[in-house]
Amino acid sequence: MLLDVEQRNNEIILSYYDKEGKVNFKRYPIDQFKNWYVTDEADRFKHESLTNWDGRPIKLGQARQYNKFSLIYFLDSLPEREKEEIFAYNVPKTYFVDIETEIVDGFPKAEEAKSRILTFSIITPERKAIVLGLEDLSSADIKKIEEDTNKYFKDLDQDWTFEYRKFNTEYDMVSTFIYRFLPKFPMMTGWNFINYDWQYIVNRCKRLQIDIKEASMTKGLDKNDQRPMHIGILDYMQLYDKYDRSVKVKESNALDYVSGQVLGLNKIKYQGSLQDLYTDDFKKYVYYIDQKLKSMEVLLTLASITKMPLYKAASPVAVTEALIARKMVEQNKRVASESRDDAEKNSQFAGAYVKEPVVGFYEGVSAFDFASLYPSIMRQFNISPDAYKGMIHKNEIEERRKNLDEIVCDSGAVYSKEDSILRQIMTDLYTQRKQYKSISYEYFTKAEELKRKIKNFNKVV
Q: Distance of CA 185 to CAs 77, 177, 257, Å?
């Protein structure tokens, strides 16, 4: 499963998860990458059989820097064995991380990170809880925490081990986490992790003058979230909110509510504030460990199916572009680059139409939720860039509709009736969805039947 793609000087570095759930790498010289460019009919270097998505001639040129489409075409051109290795559905070894911060004057803000980080709680795939902290714990205290943890999770039939590492200074603790622990994490996650914990860690490192990019094998950082390249970092609250279906009515995203609904467990209770807990009973403070769900599997599946880097698979736009690019290959078309002036680059386009409400109180209000509304409309009217023929005035609509080769919308938009790229893609996806739902129901039925047999067998025994 593809994790990251990074260009370093004249080399492209791909990271992916291997069969052991660890991060592996492949390197390719930049001169292996070529971009498609729109050209004119008179260009003697134009390709003879391939065209741009809109039918214009294209040519292949050397790239100083790859673009998103040339990356797709390059990856698809790799030998089959290499593609299987990169895109295989391999679940990464995942570490659950939680920090607790010192509370001095109100709840500490992640964007400021003024207060000390007091502990890092790390849950490993091997069901080991490692806590890095600044206070002393006796061996008896450590043993008691391990016993309490196993007692707490006994209903889940899980055995846990507990390890505590004490540091003299916050700098030593944070730098150890960044330089020694983080590089070993194929995937790191937590609850509200990116918007709070990770942001706090990044900003606290700036105050402590700890260089986060040193955690990356390539010493590179993602420009959007300051993530060390080739280290997976996801937020389980965001994954739960977007993908999880185990809780039908999501009244709250608070971890205490979610863990109670999904796991039947709530966060460990304590009296007073977190600061009181830290000061008065540190044994319980480090025992503040939260369980996780499995919503990550949805995103991992998306990345595997679409053959996209993990961080692109969450974007509907990126996924759609990849599907379009690959579908066009079947029709001897490519998505080529072309030079645009600044005016075009900065131009804006109208988005979805939102009707202005009539303010007031009403009785008998109804709400309608249409299944797959936008995709259904796109399929019905063949809405797609390659099928678009332009806009006409509303006075021309009725006359234009006499042309049976066109679809004329009430807005005045005109589309060809010939199946567009997007209609073909959505039809394929819809067909696959029905097939997979049927298979899913079949396996669910078999699982329920197996459960009944086991239950009856146990009664007999």
A: 30, 11, 28
